[in-house]
From TrEMBL:
Family as reported in the entry's similarity comment: Belongs to the RRP40 family.
SUPFAM superfamilies: Eukaryotic type KH-domain (KH-domain type I), Nucleic acid-binding proteins
Keywords: Exosome, RNA-binding, rRNA processing
Gene Ontology CC terms: cytoplasmic exosome (RNase complex); nuclear exosome (RNase complex); nucleolus
Protein name as annotated: Ribosomal RNA-processing protein 40
GO biological process: CUT catabolic process; exonucleolytic trimming to generate mature 3'-end of 5.8S rRNA from tricistronic rRNA transcript (SSU-rRNA, 5.8S rRNA, LSU-rRNA); nuclear polyadenylation-dependent rRNA catabolic process; poly(A)-dependent snoRNA 3'-end processing; TRAMP-dependent tRNA surveillance pathway; U4 snRNA 3'-end processing
Domain K Homology stretches: 172-214
Subcellular location: Nucleus, Nucleolus
GO molecular function: RNA binding
Organism: Pseudomicrostroma glucosiphilum
Pfam families tied to this protein: KH_6, RRP40_S1
């Protein structure tokens, strides 16, 4: 199974054009000129497997198809991107905004009016150390990222804001960025399987943090152990996919139908634990 490394040149199918290509994490054009002169030649900036998502146009351009390409693999540190759902901890505040730690290289700002229903007279008064669930609205290279707790499409909070709960039965768990992104997929079964053993509420941040609220401290401990085990499984995902590879798939990048399959499989399957394994971990903490 092919794995790309930083510095490799990725050759996309010749039928692709710059207008139909959207680049995700791990891929860039070698230069601005290459965007038009050689749109199918991309430079890899991190190691992993290539992922691809097909997308269709809208309205009059419905028949036009495009594709999103990215590199799927372990990531060391979170880099904020607009639209990311994040969990941040308040580290400072003033009259205009809160400062959030995002588990990344830089802090983020959260305006005090960026909450549903907030006004200059009536606005949340969050304490230092409080946890907040929100969306990244801007992330420029020369500025601190900005976060909001209001969904731009609806103007509502939609569950964003301060994360509250009784001490001991709720808390935050740090997981890998790959597992966090995989858990955000509605089809991922891990949290659904865990909820068959006890009720839970969760908020997942793409910055590698997950907040859990449960009815008993032992349930939180069991959930933490399940997530840690899922992360260990996820790091072995490449080996498992490789064991099921087919002869000749080393030439995957020459076959448009196969291109990106491995990265997509890894992204969707990262951290999938067998139901029996989840049950075993829960029983070891909570009991039968």
């Amino acid at each position: 199974m092919p794995v790309v490394l930083p510095g490799d040149v990725l050759s996309l199918p010749s039928t692709s054009s710059s207008a139909s290509i959207r680049l995700g994490p791990g891929l860039v054009y070698p230069s601005e000129a290459a965007r038009t002169t050689a749109p199918t030649q991309l430079l890899v900036t991190r190691g992993g497997l290539v992922g691809k998502v097909d997308e269709k146009g809208k309205g009059k351009e419905k028949e036009k198809k495009g594709a999103g390409w990215w590199i799927e693999g372990p990531i060391g540190r979170y880099v904020p991107s607009p639209g990311d759902a994040i969990i941040g901890q308040i580290t400072a505040k003033n009259a205009e905004f809160y400062t959030l730690s995002l588990n990344s290289a830089h802090s983020a700002t959260l305006p005090v009016l960026a909450f549903e229903g907030a006004t200059k007279r009536h606005r949340p008064n969050l304490k230092i150390g409080a946890l907040v669930y929100g969306l990244v609205t801007s992330a420029e290279n020369w500025m601190e990222p900005e976060v909001t707790c209001v969904d731009p499409s609806t103007g509502k909070g939609n569950g964003m804001g301060e994360l509250e709960g009784k001490e001991g039965s709720c808390g935050m768990v740090e997981i890998s960025l790959a597992l966090a992104k995989s858990l955000l997929r509605p089809s991922h079964p891990l949290l659904q399987t865990l909820s068959t053993h006890f009720p839970l509420e969760s908020a997942i941040g793409t910055n590698g943090l997950i907040w859990l609220r449960l009815s008993h401290p032992s349930h939180f401990l069991a959930s933490k152990l399940v997530l840690e085990s899922a992360d260990r499984y996820g790091t072995a995902g490449i080996d498992e996919l490789s064991a099921h590879s087919e002869p000749g798939e080393e030439e995957w990048f020459l076959k448009e139908k196969r291109a990106g399959d491995w990265g997509k499989k890894l992204a969707a399957g990262w951290g999938r634990l067998d139901q029996k394994e989840v049950a075993r971990i829960v029983r070891s903490v909570v009991g039968s």
